[in-house]
Amino acid sequence: KLIRPTRALTYSASASLACCYAAYRLHDRRDLSDKEAEDAYKFFPQRSASTSQSDETTPTQHHLSNLNQYGVSVVKETLTPAQVAKWNTTTNEAFENASNNIVWNSGRAHFSISKRTSLFSKMAKIGESSCSRNNNDQDGETASASSDRRLGYFWQRKQPTDNSQTISQQTEVTSLQDIVKSYFKQHKIERYELTDVQFLNAYPDSTNQIWHRDNTCCGLTAIVALKDVRSNGPTELLTGTHKQDFSLWEAFQNAVFEEDDAARFSLGQPLLGVIDAGDAILYDARIFHRGRGYRKSSESDLDRPVLVLRWDAANTPPPGAGLIKTTANTYTGCFLYAALSAIQKFNNKKEDA
């Protein structure tokens, strides 16, 4: 008599799981719409406003706060328009002339750069202080105008209207390299190095990458866009998952009870890294992330090149885990994405109501 109810419960549970999995796959494999990308693009300034701190906080400290709280920050104008054009030319030449050194993955071309080449040295200088950058800039823009745009999304700060700033004043503006140095100092890591430098190009019809972490230990990855990134294969991150004490239950509680947007955001939410050409997404190596697919196929579709730089502690090189743990991270990322997407939809309906 007990067999039939048990079987019925088993079948019901199996059917429910199958339906949940089918819904997840449909959501996961959908093409990103232009509206979804534009909404994500507008999302960054809203977060910068809600996380803005006192004027005494330096830009570098603010980026560190974003990295600690969310696991990601955006550095505006890491490259100037002139530098973007030069790197676009360099990447095109690399992909055309070095087919044997290119690794293909999910419709993306990866061109790794050897540390013994001059190209590696040039890449290592990306995101230096504004003083060095302005000395090499050929587009004629003033330092104050460039700096004003670079602070961008995650940093709101008044800039002086006087264009006659001294060089010493200009160097106070944050840079990618400043943030990297301060990040490792904050984590009490004395020795760190640039472990990976590559060109990465996503093409139309590329598919979603697997969820992964760049390292299980402290580290940073920068993705510098050479073209505007919208629905053409942006990086997707699960905010807050770099924390050791990350909790889905806490993320759900915050979605239900927390009124502060910044607090809800810091405890887990899928985030599309849509940025402009020259901007950089800087994220903690421990955060779960992936490259989204770029499945549109028309005559107007173009490739989407980026520069990738990774810094890790000298004694904890990537990936920091064996094959079993790396594989487990893939499935963990899928589960977290499904759960956080459901929480996000619940939260959106709550706000609409």
Description:
By secondary structure, the protein is an alpha+beta fold. The protein has helices at residues 3-28, 34-50, 59-69, 81-97, 118-124, 130-136, 143-151, 167-170, 176-186, 248-257, 261-266, 323-352, and strands spanning 72-75, 102-105, 108-112, 192-202, 219-225, 235-238, 270-273, 280-284, 289-291, 304-313. Strand 2 and strand 3 form a beta hairpin. The longest helix has 30 residues, at 323-352. The chain is globular and about 70 Å long. 36% of the residues are buried.
List keywords for this structure.
7-stranded antiparallel sheet; 44% helix; alpha+beta; 3-stranded antiparallel sheet
Mean pLDDT comes to: 78
Cα separation of the termini: 46 Å
Nearest-angstrom radius of gyration? 22 Å
State the helical fraction: 40-55%
| Main structural class | alpha+beta
Summary, kept brief:
The protein has helices at 3-28, 34-50, 59-69, 81-97, 118-124, 130-136, 143-151, 167-170, 176-186, 248-257, 261-266, 323-352, and strands spanning 72-75, 102-105, 108-112, 192-202, 219-225, 235-238, 270-273, 280-284, 289-291, 304-313.
